[in-house]
Design goal:
Blueprint lengths: L4 E5 L14 E5 L2 E4 L6 E3 L10 E4 L5 E5 L3 E4 L4 E6 L11 E5 L6 E8 L7 E8 L8 E11 L15 E6 L7 E7 L2 E2 L3 E3 L6 E7 L5 E11 L2 E11 L6 E7 L6 E4 L5 E6 L2 E6 L5 H6 L2 E3 L4 E8 L5 E7 L16 E6 L11 E7 L29 E4 L3 E3 L9 E5 L13 E3 L9 E10 L4 E11 L8 E2 L2 E2 L6 E4 L7 E7 L1 E5 L5 E6 L3 E11 L9 E7 L2 E2 L9 E3 L6 E4 L6 E8 L1 E5 L5 E6 L3 E12 L4 E5 L3 E6 L5 E8 L7 E7 L8 E8 L6 E7 L4 E4 L9 E8 L5 E3 L3 E2 L3 E6 L4 E6 L10 E9 L6 E6 L5 E6 L5 E10 L5 E3 L3 E4 L9 E2 L21 E6 L5 E6 L13 E9 L4 E9 L2
Parallel strand pairs: 29-34, 36-42, 43-50, 44-51, 68-72
Antiparallel strand pairs: 1-13, 2-3, 3-4, 5-6, 6-7, 7-8, 9-10, 10-11, 11-12, 13-14, 14-15, 14-16, 17-18, 18-19, 19-20, 21-22, 22-23, 23-24, 25-26, 26-27, 27-28, 30-32, 31-33, 33-34, 35-37, 37-40, 38-41, 39-40, 41-42, 45-48, 46-49, 47-48, 49-50, 49-51, 52-53, 53-56, 54-55, 54-57, 57-58, 57-59, ...
Protein name: Gliding motility-associated C-terminal domain-containing protein
InterPro entries: Ig-like_fold, PKD_6, T9SS_type_B
Keywords: Signal
């Protein structure tokens, strides 16, 4: 009994009108159909061999590779490296199909039913890489058995989760259909379906969308008793379950096929062609829609949907061919018919029986393709036409909105809403140097499938609307008045004047205008265009033509630093022919009187003023005007800078943090110079130049254990006058350990920078494993050393000096001083427990520093007479006689034993 497999490929594939991966058909015996031509071109350049032929092309219709029972070949007909196989007999009826690996541009899977070495007929897999072997292609794996048994395979897409499905019927007369999901992780356990009672099945086809299957099957077969049926079933694109059979009254079926929209089903008998309408998907409607498509004498062999949405019918002619048929087409030769409009009902489908005459008799099967390449969705994604914009201009993407669908645009950059059917694009990125392309993909989802389309937006650098500079008030009849804009390289300019005439400079960034008679609404308008063809918005400049001139207020600094009061420039836009008379109160016009620009020396601090009188004489008119007064304040910059504190640390003794304050902000461009020197040196070293804010800096180039340092800050105020702080000196703490008498001595210097009377000092300490410093004692303001500090509190001593200002509340720290003591034990060898309260117990000085200890005492016979953990010096030996005893003392801190003898003398 044969096992029929159906391979369902799930790919979220892009369905586009130009998609031509299935454009090349190889039919065997050299017969080739090329669907990049219209009508399809027939030639004898197809793959050789009398067997199934599988092909796959690029989206532009260029053949990438093909496979038959001889091997796997590239688009040039070269056998791939390791592409030959012995999986097929010389003549085989079994199918082959090629599908691309999702996410890869060069890897392809080839599914086939063949004979792997030392195995029976099986569903097999081969993997090829068309980028390998210098682009000639190579086989990575072949003859991988997916399922023993089988004869036919098909492929379809269903856009659910990107996996494959293998569907088949088991042997041993069982009616189970098994769906195997194939993912990158391997093959799952099968999903079992029992849509019909079946002994064997054939003529399998998936609808292009992959949600329906049609096939014929043998329901019962004992001896000569055969019951053949045909049905349509649902295929769950997520779970792999097959269900809901609709039985059709069709037997002796050769092949089945769906229309591209999935709404019509065609069934080929050996000598007839039947159509069913699936729009109303219920049994009675489908059965009542049955129509016989008229055909002449012929024998049908196979049906296959093509990318042009027509169904091609492989047939053998049983009558003499028409007079206009090619020579050499005898009765029994193969020809191709076509159903031109498969989505139409009945005769309107236009079956053309002898549409194509083939160059030879091909193999009696047509090639099969993943039907996602053939699906004609009801709505196609439309990203809209490619467009070109300038600068930040907006443009709308997309086509007609479909409310029942969801949209996702990627990337989302520069789109106002990436989930809109028609998002607005606006470039807001960095300045472009030339036209730049941005490609966007819209993904259209109908709840199951996602299809995509692309659009390219070319953004050319824009040009800003130019700002026109020139005279706003002119005398009637004045000539050669200048108007201009900042020039842009390679730009052209179009000037338009109302009330006057451009006499020179048209097309450039600067022109001269002859103005006419008096009018209040004269204008100068300019549009600029850059080298990329982008035009600016129009700039319009209003001009008043009148004998009474509205002279411009002087343009210059209204505030002047006292140290910069001389040589200050003031000006107005020059109008050809005008004479300017300047006047200044509190200042002297040093040069430029009579022109549009003067230099002024201001007399000193305070409020001053400057203004102009203007006169212009034309052929028949004398014009006068006076400006408004510009008030000028000459001031002294009061900014001061103070170095407030310099503290060692906080993270390390190799850094010092410098803090300061400003009486008022400096300009954002101003920098503060941090200077440092070791105390007592004369030369300063520049440490850094930092912004004025934040008001601190950490200098990481110090050695505060070895030196104390002096710091100073320098900068310039907003009037460019130098500012300098007083110096601050850090605190350096030094000390020595005196292990013989378990004491230590400390010494430090005073902090310089705050008044001595306002500075308070404290000694802070942490010992051994303590994590934080704690205050040990306040220090006298005039005392900068301590002696005879007790060292018996621990082994590792850490000290810091803290200085604080009683006026500002600021705090600084010294370096950290580390001193280490070993505190060795000195154990006496006699004690006298006689009750005189002197040497009455076996006391060990400093043992309190070793709290985790263990003391064991033995007599001279080795008998233990005393034992105590964490011994504190309380053993009196009161129950023992005088004599010598032997002890063993374990100290956990040192992981050592002290052994010796001690005498009890009462």
């Amino acid at each position: 009994m044969k096992l029929l497999f159906t391979l369902l490929l799930t790919l979220c594939a892009t369905i586009a009108l130009a998609q031509q991966e299935s454009a090349i058909w190889y039919l065997g015996n050299g017969v080739k159909l090329d669907f990049t031509a219209s009508p399809p071109a027939v030639s004898g350049t197809g793959g050789l061999g009398n067997s199934p032929q599988a092909t796959y092309a690029t989206a532009q219709g260029k053949l990438v590779l093909y496979a038959n029972t001889q091997g796997i070949f590239n688009g040039s007909g070269q056998l791939l490296r390791d592409g030959a196989w012995n999986s097929f007999p010389a003549y085989a009826w079994h199918d082959i199909i090629i599908v691309p690996k999702p996410g890869s541009s060069s890897i392809y899977y080839i599914f086939y039913v063949g004979y792997p070495p030392n195995a029976a007929l099986s569903l097999c897999l081969a993997t090829v890489d068309m980028a390998a072997d210098q682009g000639k292609g190579a086989v990575l794996e072949k003859d991988r058995i997916l399922r023993a048994g089988g004869e036919n395979i098909l492929a379809s897409s269903q856009c659910a989760d990107g996996s494959y499905w293998v569907v088949g019927q088991v042997d041993n007369y069982e009616d189970d259909l098994l769906s195997y999901r194939i993912t990158a992780a391997g093959i799952s356990e099968p999903v079992v379906s029992k849509p019909v009672s079946s002994r064997g099945s054939w003529a399998y086809k998936f609808s292009p969308r992959g949600d329906k299957m049609a096939f014929s099957y043998d329901e019962f077969h004992i001896g000569n008793n055969v019951i053949l049926k045909t049905c349509i079933v649902d295929f769950d694109q997520t779970t792999g379950r097959i269900s809901n059979p609709i039985h059709l009254n069709e037997v002796d079926v050769v092949d089945t096929e769906f229309s591209a929209d999935g709404k019509k089903l065609y069934i080929a008998h050996p000598n007839s062609l039947i159509q069913y309408d699936l729009n109303s998907y219920n049994l009675s409607s489908i059965l009542n829609s049955r129509q016989v498509i008229p055909t002449a004498s012929t024998r049908f062999l196979a049906l296959q949907l093509a990318l042009n949405e027509q169904i091609y019918v492989l047939q053998r002619n049983t009558d003499p061919l028409p007079i206009n048929s090619p020579i050499g087409q005898p009765i029994g030769s193969a020809i191709m018919g076509t159903i031109r409009f498969p989505e139409r009902a009945g005769l309107a489908c236009e079956f053309e029986q002898n549409a194509l005459f083939l160059t030879a008799n091909p193999f009696p099967k047509l090639p099969i393709f993943p039907t996602n390449l053939l699906y004609s969705p009801p709505v196609r994604p439309d990203a809209g036409p490619d467009q070109r914009v300038c600068g930040s201009q907006t443009v709308q993407l997309g086509g007609k909105s479909q409310p029942a669908y969801t949209y996702t645009w990627s990337p989302a950059t520069f789109l106002d809403n990436p989930n809109s059917p028609n998002p607005t694009f606006r470039y807001t990125g960095s300045t472009l140097t030339g036209p730049t392309e941005f490609t966007y993909t819209v993904a259209l989802n109908d709840g199951t499938c996602t299809r995509k389309d692309n659009v390219t937006i070319t953004v050319a650098p824009g040009i800003e609307a130019p700002t026109i500079r020139g005279s706003r008030s002119v005398c009637p009849g004045v000539t050669a008045v200048d108007y201009q804009v900042p020039p842009v390289p390679n730009a052209t300019y179009r000037w338009t004047v109302v009330g006057g005439q451009v006499v020179s400079g048209q097309g450039t960034a600067a022109i001269k205008i002859n103005w006419g008679a008096s009018r209040p609404d004269a204008t100068v308008t300019l549009t600029a265009q850059n080298q990329f063809g982008c035009s600016s918005t129009a700039s319009t400049f209003s001009v008043r033509i009148n004998p009474v001139l509205k002279t411009e207020t002087p343009n210059g600094p209204p505030t002047v630093c006292l140290n910069q009061k001389d040589g200050v420039a003031y000006e107005v836009i020059n109008t050809n022919g005008s004479i300017y008379t300047w006047a200044a109160q509190g200042g002297t016009i040093k040069q430029g009187q009579g022109t549009n620009r003067v230099i002024v020396d201001w007399s000193g601090l305070g409020q001053h003023s400057i203004w102009i009188r203007e006169k212009s004489t034309t052929v028949d008119t004398v014009c006068y005007g006076a400006s408004d007064t510009l008030r000028v304040n000459v001031f002294r910059d009061p900014t001061t800078i103070s170095l407030t504190a310099v503290s060692v640390g906080p993270s390390s003794d190799n850094e010092a943090t410098v803090s300061w304050s400003l009486s008022q902000p400096l300009a954002s461009t101003q920098r503060i110079t941090v200077l440092r020197r070791t105390a007592g040196a004369s030369a300063w070293q520049e440490v850094a130049q930092v912004p004025a804010t934040p008001a601190s800096y950490t200098d990481k180039g110090v050695a505060a254990d070895d030196y104390n340092y002096e710091y100073q800050l320098r900068t310039r105020n907003n009037c460019d006058e130098p500012l300098e702080t007083t110096l601050h000196r850090t605190i350096r703490l030094a000390g020595v350990a005196r292990p013989i008498d378990d004491k230590l001595d400390l010494a430090w210097n005073a902090y310089t920078g705050w008044p001595a009377a306002d500075t308070r000092y404290e000694l802070w300490r942490k010992v051994d494993k303590e994590e934080a410093y704690t205050l040990l004692r306040p220090l006298g303001s005039g005392n900068f050393s301590l002696t005879d500090l007790d060292a018996l509190v621990g082994f590792e001593h850490h000290y810091k000096i803290k200085a604080s200002s009683t006026t500002s509340g600021l705090v600084v720290w010294s370096n950290e001083l580390d001193l280490t003591f070993e505190h060795p034990l000195v154990i006496s060898n006699i004690f006298t427990p006689n009750g005189d309260h002197h040497n009455d117990t076996f006391r060990i000085p400093k043992l309190e520093l070793y709290p985790e200890n263990e003391l064991t005492v033995f007599n001279r016979y080795g008998k233990q007479v005393f034992h105590q953990k964490n011994y504190t010096g309380n053993w009196s030996g009161s129950d023992l006689t005088n004599g010598v005893y032997y002890y063993q003392l374990f100290l956990k801190r040192l992981n050592t034993y002290h052994k010796g003898w001690v005498q009890i003398a009462k």
